[in-house]
Write a structure and sequence with these properties.
Layout: E1 8-13, H1 17-27, E2 32-39, H2 44-52, E3 56-58, H3 63-71, H4 80-85, E4 89-92, H5 99-109, E5 112-115, H6 121-124, E6 127-128, H7 130-133, E7 142-145, H8 148-164, E8 168-176, E9 192-193, H9 201-204, E10 213-221, E11 227-234, H10 243-251, E12 256-259, H11 261-264, H12 269-278, E13 289-292, E14 297-299, E15 302-309, H13 316-327, H14 333-347
Parallel strand pairs: 1-2, 1-4, 2-3, 4-5, 5-7, 6-7, 8-10, 12-13
Antiparallel strand pairs: 8-11, 9-10, 11-15, 13-15, 14-15
Helix pairs in contact: 1-13, 13-14
The chain binds nicotinamide-adenine-dinucleotide.
Length: 350
């Protein structure tokens, strides 16, 4: 039983784009704490951990690698094994497809584990988004928080599905080529279709909500700020919804923002990101899925809409809820979401 425990001890393995954000979001909560973060070696990224006061560990159990931290002036508290020994749960934020190697380490250490969307569902046989399947993840040994795209689709489609009882969806993912901090990815002057059809993004929603029938196409475009989804959803007969009532439904949905593009002069992803910076979000993050009000239209039983996803941050609050699910400390997803978001917004001072 975890109910009486003061604080869930969270290890972050991989302190990059996602890892540093998850660490801050965990640090913002009063029921969990960061017991350490790993880096593969000394680099400027270590400075942030030091500034935050997160104990720094080496990703590997290798004395030479550990020694390199001290050579560059960083205090290293030990190896990944040392960190796992003091953790209740590890959030794996390593680059995609490293999960299989890391999974064995977590299981040997007897610690609960969470992977990110760069890993396949098959690695854990269980995936997570807050609104779709928090309950299924309660007290599980390990799971995978789905990707930024799948999280975004789940945010708007799950409430629609809950209302309608069935849903058939086709969507096109217009994906940013790289994160702003990446220097080795592209395209820089081309549009690159994903030639594996359908793309994995849509069907991945079915790992958290198998009842939603969904397929997707994907293209990568030369931008670093946000993905855009162009979505067509066929609602069943007798759904009783209108464009207005769907907008109301999403207005009441946590972690979804509805704004009128033309009225607010916020018609592109550049302006959405500028708004996130204006409201004071750390790193200019936007945890919410952004839906353009004037881009939503129900025509007969067919719903058309666009949404924008801040790829680096929409999964961050989901990771916090997922920790509570695995530890079995909060059975109700909405209670967890409210707690997570209140703490993050206070911490991020916005
Ligand atoms: P990243 O490259 O920014 O960070 C990964 C970090 O892990 C780096 O600090 C790297 O040095 C470290 N690392 C390298 N090898 C490691 C190992 N064997 N074990 C532990 N750590 C190791 O990557 P990211 O963008 O933060 O992605 C992390 C995961 O999150 C991936 O599965 C990715 O698909 C997923 N994800 C990324 C985004 C995004 O937009 N960046 C969004 C959602 C999900």
């Amino acid at each position: 039983m975890w109910g009486h425990r003061m604080s869930i001890k969270v290890a972050i393995n991989g302190y990059g784009t996602i890892g540093k954000r998850v660490a801050d979001a965990v640090d913002a909560q009063d029921d969990m704490e960061v017991v350490g973060v790993t880096k593969t070696g000394p680099s400027f990224g270590c400075d942030l951990a030091v500034k935050k006061g997160f104990p720094l560990y080496c990703t590997f159990d290798d004395a030479d690698r550990i020694a390199r931290f001290a050579e560059q002036g960083y205090e290293c508290s030990g190896s990944l094994s040392d960190l796992l020994a003091i953790a209740d749960v590890v959030v794996d934020c390593s680059p995609g497809k490293m999960g299989a190697d890391n999974l064995a380490k977590y299981q040997n250490a007897g610690v609960k584990y969470m992977f990110q969307g760069g890993e396949k569902h098959a690695l854990t046989g269980l995936s997570y988004t807050s609104s779709a399947n928090h309950t299924e993840n309660l007290n599980a040994e390990g799971t995978r928080v789905v990707s930024c795209n799948t999280t975004g689709l789940s945010r708007t489609l799950v409430p629609l599905y809950e209302h309608c009882g069935s849903l058939k969806v086709e969507c096109t993912m217009i994906r940013r080529a790289a994160d702003p901090g990446d220097s080795n990815k592209g395209p820089i002057n081309a549009i690159k279709p994903v030639l594996k059809v359908p793309s994995h993004h849509g069907p991945d929603v079915m790992t958290v909500k198998p009842e939603i029938e969904i397929n997707s196409l994907a293209v990568a475009v030369p931008t670093t700020i946000m993905h855009v989804h162009a979505i067509i959803a066929d609602l069943p007969e007798g759904h009783g919804l209108t464009t207005e009532s769907i907008l109301e439904m999403w207005t009441d949905t946590p972690r979804v923002i509805i704004m009128h593009g033309s009225d607010n002069r916020i018609t592109t992803t550049a302006e959405v990101m500028e708004m996130a910076r204006d409201i004071g979000r750390k790193w200019g993050d936007l945890h919410e899925i952004f839906v353009w009000e004037d881009g939503v239209k129900l025509v007969g039983d067919r719903l058309y809409y666009f949404q924008a996803i801040h790829q680096e941050s929409d999964v961050i609050p989901e990771n916090v809820d997922c920790i509570r699910a695995l530890m079995g400390t909060e059975p109700d997803w909405q209670t967890s979401v409210a707690k997570t978001d209140a703490a993050i917004s206070k911490y991020y001072n916005c």
